[in-house]
Structure prediction request, 402 residues.
Amino acid sequence: MEEKKKKYQKIIAVSLAVFLAIYFTFYLGFYFGAQNPKEIKISGVEGVENKEGISLNPFWEVWGMVREKHINGEKIKDKDLIYGAMSGLVSSLDDPYSAFLPPEDSQKFEEDVKGSFGGVGMEIESKNGQLIVVAPLKNTPAERAGLLAGDLILKVDGEEIGSLDANSAVKKIRGDVGTKVVLSIFRDGFKEVKDFSLIREVIKVPTLEWEMKGDIAYVKLMGFNENSLPLFYEAMIKSLFSGAKGLVLDLRNNPGGYLEVATRLSGWFVENGEIVVSERFRDGKKDDFIATGNEALKDFPTVILVNKGSASASEILAGALRDLRGVKLVGEKTFGKGTVQELNYLADGSMVKLTIAEWVLPSGQILKEEGLEPDYKVEITEKDKEQNKDPQLEKALELIKQ
Prediction:
């Protein structure tokens, strides 16, 4: 019994010795580590001279300074600091179409895509460091106030917004329904900046309108959304039964939408299987998008109207039909929005919108920042507007009849 007791005491003594050895090893390691901190590095970061990586220590130093020294350092939430850092990370790309959207902004973006939101009714983009009206939507406060594609937005309610990206500017322009917002606008032909007062409304994005201009069908497509294809089908069936001998497709002030809708719509005008547009990625690889449809208008006389408010999917459809069918474009140079964005949703509901590719037309033309030059350049003057004239449409109808 005594021998067994001594055996247990020996086991306990050895265990205690091992524990103390581990403890002191950990303590000494922690102590010397604190005295000589090791930098944490991210390997494989491109664009820096240090091939081994870049230290994150300065980031945490700034974090500490903000927390300890800024007058509001104790009040700001960690979440807001993180969101600010993520926004800055994406902004460093110097790409107006890439953005980090916190949860509330991500929700507003989804509302835009679904086609119903509160605001003044216009599409805006940041281009060359300026906020530009891409297109005022039909029958909205923006259109009724007289805003035009190409207008530069300098201030919102007296506040300079030139340095903001498009998403941040949209946040300032939107507000409660029934409230007023004042936009300071500069336009070619203005001698000075002009203020426009608009009352915010619930905006319902229109899609398509059509009518017969004699024996010519006139179809105005205002967006590429889930309703575009059935509405276009209905308009064309009715116009063909009405004896239409040609088509003027009006894509003016059409800011774009779903690429799939544009490629499927092209299937009315070209043979199935034709490459409408390609996405080219940074490694040189391409994804081709082909026309799928009924080819019903393959030989139908067609002219397309464009202007500086024609962007994205509008430019793809117009450019592809010119390349593949020789369809003439009438109006003004298009906006030049030729990149592809990928939407990446994060666990907290925020979103990163990231440019991952550029669009290439069948001719090889890259739309990015260039836009499409019309075959027949026709401008609408202030006098034309006062007299309710549309020389662009008149030219298109003239070409169809010829």
